[in-house]
UniProtKB/TrEMBL annotation:
Residues 16-29 have a biased composition (Low complexity). Residues 1-29 are annotated as: Disordered. InterPro entries: SAM-dependent_MTases_sf. This is Methylase.
Length: 279
């Protein structure tokens, strides 16, 4: 199914129809810190080597905080990075304009990504949660087609799409390259977690309705809970040590793609193929 299209007044992209629908626009300062830090750590090299390291904050919401913070965090890893915040609601763009500065701009648009060339990063947080599951594949395909292509030693641009709670304690996202989905990352403030399956409510739209018996993501969260329970003796050393031990046990049966350096941050990343929905 194709992505829904809405032509809104005052499009700033040469009259091209704006693709998408207006979201609720909920946002809070520091909400996307876990995603931002992961992006800077794992994609910083691509941003540094890019000739024009443009990152897009797609659907930043009713206030521009997440775009402002993304620029700060990316520049710690790639000093030449630029951020363009894109919103489908013209009033939100107008409200964000006073925050523009060197390296930060705001544009009216949607999934068509109204920026010249191909961005090295597109971040779409808490956007597709408001769409139907059947629409996700078409949106992913459209956004991946806008990414910087692979070649010359580069893996190409990155699309990071996911969902978090209102204050950013729990977050799950999918990372996609020009070729499609690559990984799924689960990230949390460990002190807020009773068990890893608590993250199920923050699964992105492509997976949230698949957390049922017979689906890989359900099996993964079941095994994660079992590993967490088995690691209970490590709780005396703190939640971080318990998480690290549980993830280490998971690696026996699941293709975990990251290392203890990321596990220590309350993260674990798994190959998309292992969690992809059963068709």
């Amino acid at each position: 199914m194709a992505a829904r299209a809405a032509t809104l007044p005052h499009s700033r992209h040469r009259g091209t129809p704006v693709v998408g629908t207006v979201t609720r626009g909920t946002t809070n300062p520091n909400r996307l810190r876990r995603m931002d830090r992961w992006i800077a750590a794992t994609h910083g090299a691509e941003l540094r080597r890019a000739g024009d390291p443009v990152a897009v904050d797609l659907g930043y919401g009713a206030a521009p905080w997440t775009a402002v913070e993304l620029l700060t965090r990316l520049r710690a890893a790639a000093p030449r990075a630029r951020v363009v915040g894109i919103e489908i609601e013209p009033e939100r763009v107008a409200a964000a304009r006073p925050y523009e500065r060197e390296g930060l701009a705001f544009r009216h648009g949607g999934f068509e990504i109204p920026v010249p060339g191909n961005p090295v990063l597109v971040r779409a947080a808490n956007v597709l949660r408001q769409y139907d599951e059947a629409e996700v594949a078409a949106v992913w395909e459209r956004l991946c087609a806008r990414l910087a292509p692979a070649g010359g030693g580069s893996r190409g641009g990155l699309l990071v799409e996911g969902t978090c709670d209102e204050i950013g304690r729990r977050h799950v996202w999918v990372a996609l390259g020009p070729e499609g989905p690559r990984t799924v990352t689960f990230a949390t403030r460990l002190g807020s977690l009773d068990r890893p399956s608590d993250l199920a409510e923050r699964l992105p739209k492509a997976l949230i309705h698949r957390n049922v018996p017979g689906e890989p993501v359900h099996a993964f969260l079941r095994d994660f809970d079992r590993a967490w329970a088995a690691a209970a003796p490590y709780a005396s050393y703190g939640a971080r040590q318990r998480w690290i031990r549980a993830v280490r046990d998971l690696t026996a049966d699941w293709p975990v793609t990251d290392s203890p350096a990321r596990w220590r941050q309350g993260e674990v990343t798994v190959a998309w193929e292992a969690l992809a929905p059963v068709r």
